[in-house]
Write a structure and sequence with these properties.
Layout lengths: L5 H6 L11 E5 L2 E4 L4 E4 L2 H4 L8 H11 L12 H13 L6 E5 L2 H16 L3 E5 L8 H6 L3 H4 L9 E4 L4 H7 L4 E6 L2 E2 L5 E2 L2 H14 L2 E5 L23 E4 L10 E5 L18 H17 L1 H17 L6 E7 L2 E6 L4 H9 L2 E2 L1 E2 L4 E4 L7 H19 L3
Length: about 400
Amino acid sequence: MHYDFSWEKNHEFPCYPKRDLALIRGKKSVVWDQDGKKYIDCVSGHGTAFVGHCHPRVYKAVRRQSQNLITCPGIFYNDQRKILIKKLTEISPPYLKQFYFSNSGAESIEAAIKFARLATGKSEFISAFRGFHGRTLGALSATHNPKYRQDFLPLLPGFTHVPYNKVDKLADLVTENTAGIILEPVQGEGGVHIADPLYLKKVEQLCREQDILLIMDEIQTGLGRTGKMFAFQHFDIKPDIVCLAKSIAGGLPLGVTMGTDRISIKTGKHGSTFGGNPLSCTAASAVIHTIQEQRLDKAAARKGSYFLAKLKELRLPVIKEVRGIGLMIGIEIRVKVKPVILALMEKGVLALPAGPNIIRLLPPAVITYKEIDRVIETISNLLYSTYSQK
């Protein structure tokens, strides 16, 4: 069938680098386009569909809740919000016992910035080169890449950036007014770079010594994608604030800012009309239940190890490095990535860039080994046939 792209092309603000592909339907790790063509989805809504597209438990829970109550502002208690809080306490370390609900990852970072300022009485923050924390003005201030920042200057004052995995450089910029250090345990948009465990331990120690809040951005890594429920659990650290979004509600909008008892704020200092609405909370509880019951964090660890090992066996000259953890994988290549991403799409594999020369793969945890093999074969054949002579 013919799909008319013109309505979106002509009437949406051109914020996104659109591909000429309309996704119409999805199930598990597969999506279908306007013509019924099938794709293995390693984009999965920028990592949101960790339990798979349209998981039966999630859509049944959402359908049921939509008949009861869709919206409920934070000035009232709600049964679905209570259930989600209980689920979050089940999967979170016991020292993370306060939760604020918003609608996105960027909003969860905004809350973390405000909460850190309120809790410490200080106003400055340090984050990392290549770090990405969102596009709202506060989250963008923590984000490093100039291409996202330049057109919106001046941003919030008091934000500085340092090399990732270099604790000495970070320590040099700490002042008596540093409220928080904001880091990703794995830099996703920045190229799938994994933190050095010793680095994070030293950052944690620095935070304790200097009365600074350690803020972990787990928007892309949280809820099982790296093989543990939270990526910071790979590093034996105890952050003061953890930000979640993406995978948590199976594709519905939800952000969560989790904090320790140290985060003390007064009523009325922050809020959100839609944050913590019953529909998104219901979806999130169903997602967490699914991850627990199907042990999808463990599945991500197993399948990710298999994926990485097979990719590293390719030995193609065009591949510079393969790195990743769980089902968060980056393939650094020696050519521009955009033509590769588009060519993979033509061959039935959807992937993301992570910088100018990195293929990023964020498949659902329910991806099968047969599908993994198909993705690897497609990448291998494309890179070999296109770039083996270059």
